[in-house]
Request: fold
Amino acid sequence: MSTKGPALSKDETAARPKRLTLRQRVVWGAAGLALLALVMLLLARAAFERMDEAQARSNAAHHLTLDGQRLLRLSGELLLSQGAKSAREALARTMTHVSDDLAALPQSDPVSAEAALKWPQLKTHIDDLLALRLIDAQDDSTLIAYGRLAKDMEAFKPILLAAQDRAERTASDELKAGELWLVGGLLGLTALTALAGIGLVRLLDHQLGGDPGLARRIARSIAKGDLDSPVPVSPQHPKSVLAALEHVRMRLLERRAIEAQVQYMARHDSLSGAFNRASFNELLNIAFAQARRGSRGLAVLYLDLDHFKAVNDSLGHAHGDEVIRITAQRLRELLRLGDHLARLGGDEFAVILQQIASPQDLEVLAQRIIDALTQPVMLAGKAARVGASIGIAQYSAEVVDCEDWMHKADLAMYRAKTQGRGCWSLYDEQLDDKLKGQRELMSDLRAAIGSSQMSLDYQPIFAHGGEHLLGYEALLRWEHPQLGPLLPQAFIEPADAAGLMEAFGDWVLQQACAEAMRWPSPLTVSVNLAASQLLHGKLIKSVTAALKSSGLPALRLNLEINEAILLPQREAVARTLEGLSHLGTGIVMDDFGSGPASLSYLWRGQFDKLKIDRSLIEALDTDPHAQQVVGSIIAMAQALGLQVSAAGVERSGQLAQLNQLGCNEVQGFLLGRPAPMKA
Reply:
């Protein structure tokens, strides 16, 4: 008897639905996955376009805030410069920038609309000020135009800040939405790919007559680590182990990825992504060997961030870490393929440069790095400025080994620090002896702090007319055992770069306050502060401790701050000045007129007195222009309710001019030289 079933008729065969072949199923599945992937990518792209638009609006609002603040500063500079052409052009350019920034903001936003509504009136006041042919701080028309501008600008600033805040929040929201779309799309694609892979394996097993159960058991054994023998093969279904073999391949790929990640972590700094010190030393040894074999154009850059400690102290270590990450990213964008960036630790970076054609190429790159790192870093809505000092050492026959090479770059960086920071220095052969002498001097200075080698001289300060004594300015002196008496100009800047000014500052404050307590009241004592003291968070505690230990009333202590150190780290400086003001001490802006004064500090009421720079006083009795400048400064300061002091009065003609101009205080060799206070 036949075991075959009845044969199907032609009609039944035609009526039976056709099944898709294996190739057709794979093609349709791949097409479906590709279509879904395309849809997800289009959605993610739309989200990122919205992110770009929001970020552009945020950048425009940020630029608008900066340009708005710059308007008031430039109008003050226009007033001080008596309408100089450069000041007029700078103010006009800034007005154009503000108009462009306002146009870039969405007018549908109420805050942006309010800013656009306020701007024409403010622009009219600026135009009125620019329209004056003669701009003089003592002229009524100038003062009226300037007063209107200052009043409207103060009302305009909160609107700018609100517009920037709204734009930044909008950009943040769009970024989060874009991230969600992207993560969702990736997760969806991953899930679809996994399901497709599982379906394909089961389909292959079914088509090949295999045993899926055996594949699953082998995969579990491999995952647990129990399978030491070769992968078994079923005699009945020899091709059922395809899925297990694919699992083995994936496990090998995962292991290789983990090993690569471990190797990366071992060679790179986890915070910045740059090479770590160990990897840098290996690369430097390779570069040194190449140089020995005749390769040319090799150099090492040694970078140290300026004012980074102030960021950590004022904003916290989390924001300090963000500065390190952004710094590394900016450096990577400037370097070429083949150059190596490393973070040596803290705020120190190093770069190995290859194929340098000439020293001019190094100078251009170093300046570009300084310009890039000087740009502000936005941290929690606040702009932090750091900058960098760079030392450069090219390979030459005089380089003994890698340690000597790095030592030369370190010496050059140290010289850049002592030259005022924010600059670069190229190593030369005369540098060794000079910097060695400076470091020895700093070593002697470190040992001299608080010893009998250090002393204070006091120069008298007189009231208007030069007859009534008001107090003294404390001036530091150092009696070096070998070099003899040294003035502060010989060691203050290197000491500041070497981080010694904190110890110096505490000692000077203690000595000056204790000495002033022995004087009859109300004689005052003035103490100069360095940049590192002002940026450090311990200054207020140091001043408080000096006043408490001496018993000196706070109103008899004046703290003199050079105007040049007010511009970097504005927020940190403002907080310190506010704390000193709460103590009740007098705050003096020293050397006013020697650099780009920050007039906003004067308008905030954080200073009690201006001390005019001695370079302006020097020409006061011989140069009519100097008389006009000094007269404008005195008029402006007194209009703001500030006292005015003049340093460097050495001739009777200078004193007569200052009396005529109404200067409140005077000091100089004509009235009294610095000298130790008599017991």
In short: The radius of gyration is 36 Å. The longest helix spans residues 140-207. The CA atoms of residues 457 and 475 lie 5 Å apart. The chain has 22 helices and 16 strands.
